[in-house]
Amino acid sequence: MNSCIPLCIVVFSCIGISLADFDNLQDTCPTATPGKQTVFINGFACKNPANVTASDFKTSNLNHPGDTRNFYSSAVTIVTAADFPGLNTLGLSIARTDIEAAGLVLAHSHPRASELFFVSQGTVAAGFIDTNNKVFQCILKEGDVFVFPRGLLHFCYNLGFELATIFSVLNSQNPGVVTLNGAMFESHSDIVLDKQLRRLLSLSGFKV
């Protein structure tokens, strides 16, 4: 009987190890320049360490506003390890959201990431809906931060009279985006847009 105890300890230790996420095996792992892909892995191959430079850890992709000349008067730019080599293996992505006055970003979710939502400019209403269909919604002003839990539908719209700019950090290097618009609603319809906006506004009372 006693001889089984060490074996059980080893077995359960191995199970625990197999279920855990592993830390990086090196300091950095910038994404290698993609070529013809012959091997498919969960992530991106690392650049040759001898060729890693400081520029691999800098991006200017979020320097300028996105193109908001569209039906929703908003633009979301997500930068992942595919665009920003230094993010590879770090479990992070970054994003910029620009919303014109009266514009909105319709309900969507990120199946692989939670999102920290920092308002750099303007006043927006932002919220998410949990699995009990309860809405958590707040008015956010410049400097405020809100969090959207992983996998939950969330949305935002501009309550101010000028462009609103928000920067986000997501805890996955490939967060994914699932949207309801297009798949479930008629696109480019003023009536549909008005109904969806009114619905968002009526979901819950605001908390400042």
Strand order of the largest sheet: 1-2-9-4-7
- Structural Rg: 21 Å
Percentage of β-strand residues:
25-35%
Ranges with pLDDT <50 over ≥5 residues?
6-21
Oligomer: single chain
Label the structural class. alpha+beta
- The percentage helix is 10-25%
Overall geometry comes to elongated
**What string gives the helices and strands in order?**
HEEEEEEEEEEH
Number of strands: 10
Sketch the major β-sheet. Answer: 5 strands, antiparallel
Q: Counting H and I runs of at least 4 residues, what is the number of helices?
A: 2
Overall pLDDT level = 83
**Span between N and C termini?**
63 Å
Written description of the protein model:
This protein has two helices and ten strands. It has 208 residues and is α+β, with helices and mostly antiparallel strands. It is elongated. The model is unreliable at 6-21 (pLDDT under 50).
List the helices and strands and how they pair.
Elements: H1 4-19, E1 74-79, E2 93-99, E3 104-109, E4 115-121, E5 124-129, E6 135-140, E7 145-148, E8 153-158, E9 164-170, E10 178-179, H2 190-202
Antiparallel strand pairs: 1-2, 2-9, 3-8, 3-10, 4-7, 4-9, 5-6, 5-8
Which terms would index this structure?
five-stranded antiparallel β-sheet, 208 residues, 2 helices, alpha+beta
Brief account:
Helix content is 14%, strand content 27%. The chain has 208 residues and is α+β, with helices and mostly antiparallel strands.
